[in-house]
What does this fold into?
Amino acid sequence: MFSKIATLGAAAALLILVSVGADSPASAALSSDHPWQAKIDPQLLAAPPSVPIEFLLVLAEQADLGPAALLPTKLQKTTYVYETLRELAERTQGSLVQALTASGSRFRPFWVANMIWVRADTTLLQRLAQRSDVTRIIPNPQVRFQEPSRSPWLPRAKTATTIEWNLIKIAAPELWQKGIRGQGVVVGGQDTGYQWNHPALIRQYRGWDGTTADHDYNWHDAIHSGGGPCGQDAPAPCDDSGHGTHTMGTMVGDDGVGNQIGMAPAARWIGCRNMNEGLGSPASYAECYQWFIAPTDLGDNHPDPAKAPDVINNSWGCTPTEGCTEPEILRQVVQNVRAAGILTVHSAGNEGPECSTVQEPAGIYEESFSIGATDANDEIAYFSSRGPVTVDGSQRLKPNVTAPGVDIRSSVPGGGYEGGWSGTSMAAPHVAGLVALLLSAQPALKGQVDTLETLIESTAITLTTAQNCGGVAGDAIPNNTYGWGRVDALAAYLGLAPASIPTLSAWAQILLAMLLLVTAGGYWWRRSGRGQNFTEQP
It folds into this structure.
């Protein structure tokens, strides 16, 4: 979670550029006697008619990606998901794209879920809501960020150590001694950006060959306006707050001269900036997810699912202020990323110590691997959010597991290091790094998300508490405080089954061949030049 603790109260510095409050004297509520009104989020209904607003059009038809589970390899899963989603968007969005183009509105089509980002006034909003191919319209508010002051106790400098305590705690060095350091694995991060040439990160950056940097397919900026110190559409990885650089350090950081800060120092990394100075939106989060399924060049062209990462760290949560006014807002996106064979690690949040405080997308979903924070004594951090998930009525047990997230030292922009960072933001990258280590040990597990998550849960150090949440006793395993427990890299490694690639039955092979034939038709249709260009329109 892009935490109040690690970012020092950034949420308090938000100023909404577009007022959507029902009490605004300029607001003009839409008529309530039309059935299409139910498609529109109440915040948008109260928007002033003359002021452009941002929103997402969600189309009625969404993809069924169930067949992806039949595919034995990650590349097959990712390619199938990409082709299926792209074909659906191209087939169903044409009429809307024509209407938006004719209106002169700015818009950006998405295929990761079948939806379109739009900036327009409420007159057009009403017309769009009356379309049968639109099922709902949700806000994507513009926000402005004011630089916060740093709390005097966070973060604090610390001298370099051979190996950081948090890595020792979860036995990462014991895998390094076996030659398992993350080699052959690509981790992705969507965050505030990254200092790609930091001494602890440059050798691990996939765009660095030891001499020159190539940011095509290795970096994407989802911030297209404003942009703070990094500007907009940054052509090279840039971090405007330090949060992203810190989390990436915990995943892969090692400068080779004493700063061993990362779980998987031989893994390669790629990154996407989804926040402007700590603040994102449903559109920016979805855009990064989309890019990870099929990374593109810097011009956002030539997507290639073969370059997708194996695991993505998400140390952020989407608040109502950012536009996540309904719990399900990013579920379809996360489901589709998972279907592509990519494991998504999410911070559980920093709203503890009360129960039912895991409450922000995307960490609340069944399809997300949500991580709570512990300290050096394996005690749950006071701020770490607890389950169960109640915002969607599911009573879902969360977090899945916990990892060190108190007083974490890692890389920061400028080439330095800082300790004292605390938050579930700091815990999540430990688990993303652990996934990289396990995939390095057994590459056949790439794309097998369920197997990886079960392995990590079942080998975690069980932890209990006196706190009972959601009717689940604190001494039960799992519980809503620690989940299945604190992760243990060595135990997970020892729990690996003999390497094998899943095989398909004869009937499954026939079905697979038919699926690939169908999706190939859409693929070559696009290659022929008849498919629409999925880029933002002015």
About this structure: The chain has two domains: 18-140, 165-494. Residues 83 and 159 are 49 Å apart (CA to CA). The first helix runs from residue 4 to 7.
